[in-house]
Amino acid sequence: MDILERSAKLWSGEADLGGKHAWSADNSLYEVGEGIAFVHSFANASVLRSSEGLMMVDTGGYLAAKEVYSAVRKWSHLPLKIAIYSHGHIDHVFGVPHFEGSQEEQVEVIAHRGVAHRFARYEESPGYNALANSRQFQVPGLTWPTKYRYPDRDYETTYTSTFGEIAFELHHARGETDDHTWTYLPDKSAIACGDLFAWVTPNGGNPQKVQRYPREWALALEEMATMGAELLLPGHGLPVAGRERISTTLRNAAEILKSIFYQTLEMMNAGASLNEILHSVKAPSDLIGLPYLQPVYDEPEFIVHNVWREFGGWYGGDPSELKPARKGALAQEILSHITDRGAFFARIEELSDSDSDGDQRLAGHLAELAYQSDPSDAASREIRSRVFRRRAGLELSLMSKGIFNSAAAEAESEL
Predict the structure, then answer these.
(1) Of 95, 209, 269, 405, whose CB count within 10 A is highest?
(2) Helix intervals (H) in 169-242
């Protein structure tokens, strides 16, 4: 099946392709327009061919760059002249050295100026990033790179140029990252949007990553929707074809972000605590139920945290958390007042076996208290493992599954 036909069927819900998500990739290259190719990798790469050579938007990830390079070279042996980074995440920026190693001339890398700051930050925090991404993607022993191919040219707001007969415009937008670029190709009626759209609820809340910007992200999506593009090349998932389909896609994604943003800000202005807001704000159910906007990666609840963090800092409204006790000391104090430990553990089991989301959350709190009170206790480790494996199995998003499964695995490794 043609990749654009496959995309249309998934977008409409007409077919689920055997249960595969739009992210199910094979590192193969597909021609999606005259002189335009799309490498469907975990993080995609878009390739344009001109009389002067090749230009790419994103070049392949840390673990897949070689496969992306090979796919491009099967399509064309023209030199890669320009590489545009949509942003600095490591699944998008590791292909350039493969091309430079096989051709006489260097590639000119263009990106928003924030990408260099991101790379510098990554170089300082490889340990944390390895741990966070090991949890997120359930990849034990993941290593984090410490060397990056920095941009040769950067820009602040917009950048317009031509490459042979191809005109291109770069537009900065704060969204999933503060260094994001979406590329408009007017002569091709195409947009390469990076991760501003990725076939999931916008990843505006990732619990283990730095600040995201839901309102500005929504504005960028709405601006892209006005361009009248006939082809949308996302950073993850399948390309989307058709002016109306693209406009609808981008506006619906923007509406999710705007709804969460304004609900959260309204409650903040009314004096609500973070906890109250987390349990009150809901994303539009008709939108997150769409095949291309489901919360299977990030979650609307997590986006609330980023709105709060951007506008309200890290204090969530609970004074006991301003200068908290050590978790272990608090847990030991609480459990010292429980006279029937067996009944306490039985209650955790009862809550964990419930189908209620509220009960599952309570079970998580209580199981963690038990574990924190004495991590060496086999019964506490066992209940922690059981509760969080159960929670992971009930979740939709990769973020929640990853953290809950990691907690369970930590407990199991100590049994």
Answers:
(1) 95
(2) 214-225
pLDDT along the chain (415 residues), means of 10: 92 77 91 97 97 98 97 98 98 98 96 98 98 94 96 98 97 98 98 98 97 98 98 98 98 98 98 98 97 96 98 97 97 97 97 97 98 96 98 97 97 85
Q: Which amino acid, 284?
A: P
37 by Cβ neighbours in 10 Å (0-12 / 13-18 / 19+) ranks as buried
Quickly list H helices, 101-213.
114-124, 126-137
Q: First and final CA of the chain: distance in angstroms?
A: 49
As a whole number of angstroms, the distance between CA 346 and CA 228 comes to: 59
Give the β-pairing of 108-112 and 80-84: parallel
**Amino acid, res. 341:** R
Q: In terms of residues, how long is the chain?
A: 415
**The predicted structure's pLDDT at residue 20:** 67
- 8 A C-beta contact, residue 81 and residue 108: yes
Report the distance separating Cα 99 and Cα 107, nearest Å.
8
Query: Hey, what are 246's tokens?
Result: 């693209």
Of the candidates 59, 258, 81, 263, the one whose C-alpha atom is nearest the C-alpha of residue 166 is 81
CA distance 304 to 260: 7
Task: Report the C-alpha gap between 389 and 227 in whole angstroms.
Answer: 45
For 112, the token pair is 């928003």
CB of 222 closer than 8 Å to CB of 29: no
Question: Phi/psi of residue 81, each to 5°?
Answer: -100, -40
Amino acid at 187: D
Q: DSSP readout, 326-379?
A: PHHHHHHHHHTT-S-HHHHHHHHHHHHH-S-HHHHHHHHHHHHHHHHH-TT-HH
Rg (CA), the chain: 23
Angle at 325 between CA 323 and CA 377, to 5 degrees: 155
The encoded tokens of residue 168 equal 């291109």
Q: Is the distance from CB of 42 to CB of 61 less than 8 angstroms?
A: yes
Taking a C-beta distance cutoff of 8 angstroms, is the pair 50, 37 a contact?
no
Give me the numbers of helices (H) and strands (E) for the chain, helices first please. 15, 13
